[in-house]
Design brief:
Largest interface: A-B, 105 and 105 residues
Largest sheet of chain A: 5 strands, mixed
Distance between the termini of chain A: 74 Å
CATH class of one domain in chain A: Alpha Beta
Oligomer: homodimer
CATH superfamily of one domain in chain A: CofE-like
Helix content of chain A: 25-40%
CATH topology of one domain in chain A: 60s Ribosomal Protein L30, Chain: A
Order of helices and strands of chain A: EHEHEHEEEEHEEHEH
Chain lengths: ~260, ~260
């Protein structure tokens, strides 16, 4: 038992300040993290500041157009107390409310789209970080998402560089010698969650350094797609009401057809 | 920026050893954690050892019966490569594969059911912990669950005592002064995820101490149900295939009925 040294440590990174379009985010983060981060650390960056640096800001009255343009596939829609919630699959393969288009912590009258290429953004930040700390680090770009069956939201990985996001243990054996058939911890999302606990939503600290997981730092790692399950492999690819309606329409036609036979 | 002191620290607790039915788990954990934990810490305990102490072990050939007896509602079923996956809602309101009945890290020919009353188990552990550390702590009982749309599994809270699991910010304002309409971080599940990163699946370390979140330690907190979303509030209460089939049957009957009109 290690009372002195934690097995996992998360540090907030202050002083990032307000990010505006055109800011050299990798440089800014590398400067602020200098002195905190070490080789083997994983840097968690809130997607919001990546989007701001990329100028992914649009006028709020274009919000619905923005959501439509980000949407690949509508998964579910619900109206609750006059508020319409649209769960959609976006261009990154992520299933999120409003396609991840975000109105919080943005200037009045504006909404923020997700970064265009979060894996590439993560790679640029990683390059700047590694030059600063003089060794390998990992970088994850995080965003906040709701999930079925559970209240509240957790942070997840939407882009990454140099981090193995899925600890695939399938085919290995557990302590009792049994074959692990499905065990594959989504460590990327668990790291995003740990970082969110210190970054917080209201505090608005956009960057955290996670130490103790160097075993997942891997230059050959895939990006954010490693944690995306495609609709064809998913048992919940469509909202319950939408699927039931789809089935009803097909069944009704079949019922009518049965009339003519 | 705090390079010296992490904002969040997670410590593994070694030497718990193999737990058998009848073990006084609160006492065992309190003894092992003594010297590590401090007031304000949150102790994350893997449900597996709680179940073992409660003797929730059943013969593997009774596995299907066990799953049926734990099941309140079948959410989705899929067969893949001859392996049937049943996603069901269990007695705790949790939606999990095989109702949370677990075959890994158990003696050959046995499977493990989830603890009967994880909130009460958490309360007993908390009481023993607080006597040991001489101050308030929080306790969460965790288990591993898959989720729609994302690959891999993350740890979630299935029972808790003395920890606020949902950081409900709805109605508050963000840094930009905007009203937060849906923001409610599921900090309980994020703490479970952070703890899983050090406990790990193959290492088999069942307990971790999480430091830096004393603001969520709250004697008045609700238990694990705080993070359970009921089926009636959920847009994904039924698997897509199941909902489509349900709709089809209803639509077909309606189509046939139209024949007689």
């Amino acid at each position: 038992m290690t009372g002195a040294h934690p097995d996992l440590s998360v540090f907030t990174v202050d002083g990032i300040g307000e990010i505006v379009p055109g800011d050299d985010l990798p440089l800014i983060i590398a400067e602020r993290v200098n002195g905190v981060a070490r080789p083997g650390d994983i840097i968690a960056v809130t997607s919001k500041i990546v989007s701001k640096a990329e100028g992914r800001l649009v006028h709020a009255n274009d919000r619905d157009d923005a959501i439509r343009s980000e949407t690949v596939r509508v998964v579910a829609t619900r109206e609750h107390r006059g508020r319409v919630t649209r769960i959609v699959e976006n261009k990154l393969g992520l299933v999120m409310a409003a396609a991840g288009v975000d109105a919080s912590n943005t200037a009045d009258g504006t909404v923020l789209l997700l970064p265009l290429h979060p894996d590439e953004s993560a790679a640029s930040i990683r390059m700047a970080m590694e030059a600063t700390v003089g060794g390998m680090v990992g970088v994850i770009i995080t965003d906040t998402a709701g999930r079925p069956w559970r209240e509240g939201q957790t942070d997840i990985v939407i882009g990454a560089s140099g981090v193995r996001l899925l600890d695939d243990l399938r085919g290995q054996r557990d302590a009792a010698g049994k074959l692990l058939e499905v065990t594959a911890p989504a460590v990327g999302d668990e790291i995003a969650a740990a970082a969110d606990l210190v970054k917080g939503k209201s505090s608005g600290v956009p960057v955290a350094v996670v130490r103790g997981l160097a075993r997942f730092v891997d230059a050959e790692a895939h990006g954010g797609r490693e944690l995306v399950r495609g609709a064809s492999d998913d048992m919940f690819s469509l909202g319950t009401a939408e699927a039931r309606q789809q089935g009803w329409d097909e069944g009704y036609r079949a019922g009518l057809a049965a009339r003519d036979s």
